[in-house]
Structure formats: structure tokens, C-alpha cells
Write a structure and sequence with these properties.
It is a single chain. The chain is elongated and about 65 Å long. The chain has eight helices and six strands. With about 210 residues, the chain is α/β, with parallel strands linked by helices.
Length: about 210
């Protein structure tokens, strides 16, 4: 079993949690490497139950999901996206232990009400930072990826400088910078690039516009 899954399993076992529902986009990506398109959407769930992990994904992602199947990760494909939570909760309800838990910082209230109603025979615990605490300590691989990301950022910014001149819009520079990131090997941005000029440069979260540089 991978180190990340083992750490999570041991953590939950120590707390005597028999089943756990992972809903957060970044938690799931960190845990098993599955990444949908939109972080805000519920594109999959991961359930830990009776010592085993299961990924529940819609047909839209069946190819990507099935490629992750292994001895330590079972994959279930739901017929429709609206059935994802139903299929995940069924696994939790069928687990042998008496304590179930969920990511308290992520589960929506309507989802909580459904989970609570379906596994009413178990104690339901809100649990925080199960994955984020693990993410605080970086592995050697993660440290190397951070280093590579910094190098790409530096090179992209350096390559952008010749284009920074009067008459060019902030938006044009933002697009150019993003293209440089991708050309140099980035998978994407952690957040959208902010290009601010004039008075806008004093605003930390300025909204890049079509304003021309002077």
C-alpha cells in the first residue's frame, strides 16, 4: 500500500473510525492522484471502509478512474453523477464498525443530512484536517516538484519581460505568461496570474483588465 494511504489508514484506525468519506477535490488528488476538471464540482468521492479504499466516479471519468484501480484501491463507476453520494454512503453503511466520519471542512449541509439519514445506525463524526495535516510534511518527490515549479516560474517571468512595454494590455501579458508556463512544462497555474499596472499595482488581488500599460 502506498505511504499516503497507509498513513491515512493508520490514522483512522487509531481513532477507531471504520468508514470515512473523502469529498474534497484536493484531498482526493493528494490521496490517489485522481483529478477532475472543476475543483468546485463533486466529480468523485473516495470512501475508506473496513481497511480498504474505494473510488466512486461517474461514467464521464471511467477511463481515468479505472486506470487507478489496484490491490489497494477499488474503483466503482456510478451510472450518473447524482448517484455518486448514494453509492459512497452505501459502502459506509455496510461497513462493520460503529463509527463513520467525514471531512467537516468540506461536506455540504445537504450532503451531511443525507449521509446522516442513511447511516443512522452508526455514530457520525465531523473530522478536520485528515489530509491537510499530512500535506504539511513534504515528501522528497513533492520537494523536487516545488523546486521545479519555482524554476519554471522564474524562467517564465524572465521571458515575459521583453514584452512589458507601453501599449500592451495587462490581459495580453497575463495570457503570454500563462503560455510561457505551459511551454516550459507546467501542468497549469495554482491560481490565475495577476498582471497589474498603474494604480492597480497597489492592489494585492487586482483583477487583470484590458487596460494598456503606460
Amino acid at each position: 500500500m502506498s505511504l499516503k494511504l497507509t498513513k491515512v489508514k493508520n490514522n483512522l484506525n487509531e481513532k477507531e473510525i471504520s468508514s470515512f468519506l473523502f469529498t474534497n477535490f484536493y484531498s482526493i488528488f493528494y490521496l490517489i492522484g485522481f483529478k477532475g476538471v472543476v475543483p468546485e464540482d463533486r466529480e468523485c468521492f473516495v470512501v475508506f471502509a473496513d481497511g480498504k479504499f474505494t473510488l466512486i466516479a461517474p461514467k464521464l471519468y471511467q477511463t481515468e478512474a479505472k486506470s487507478l484501480a489496484s490491490k489497494e484501491l477499488k474503483v466503482i463507476i456510478s451510472d450518473e453523477r447524482e448517484f455518486l453520494l448514494r453509492d459512497a454512503v452505501k459502502i459506509m453503511a455496510d461497513s462493520k464498525g460503529k463509527i463513520s466520519a467525514f471531512e467537516s471542512e468540506d461536506l455540504k449541509y445537504k450532503e451531511f443530512e443525507y449521509v446522516k439519514a442513511e447511516i443512522k445506525t452508526k455514530k457520525l463524526l465531523p473530522t478536520a484536517n485528515v489530509i491537510s495535516d499530512l500535506r504539511l510534511i513534504k515528501t522528497e518527490e513533492e520537494i523536487e516538484l516545488i523546486r521545479k515549479a519555482q524554476e519554471i516560474t522564474y524562467k517564465a517571468l524572465k521571458n515575459l519581460m521583453p514584452y512589458v512595454k507601453p501599449g500592451v494590455t495587462e490581459q495580453e501579458l497575463s495570457v503570454k505568461l500563462t503560455n510561457e508556463f505551459m511551454r516550459l512544462g507546467a501542468e497549469g497555474e495554482s491560481f490565475g496570474s495577476i498582471v497589474a499596472s498603474g494604480k492597480g499595482s497597489a492592489l494585492p488581488h487586482y483583477l487583470t483588465s484590458n487596460k494598456k500599460l503606460k
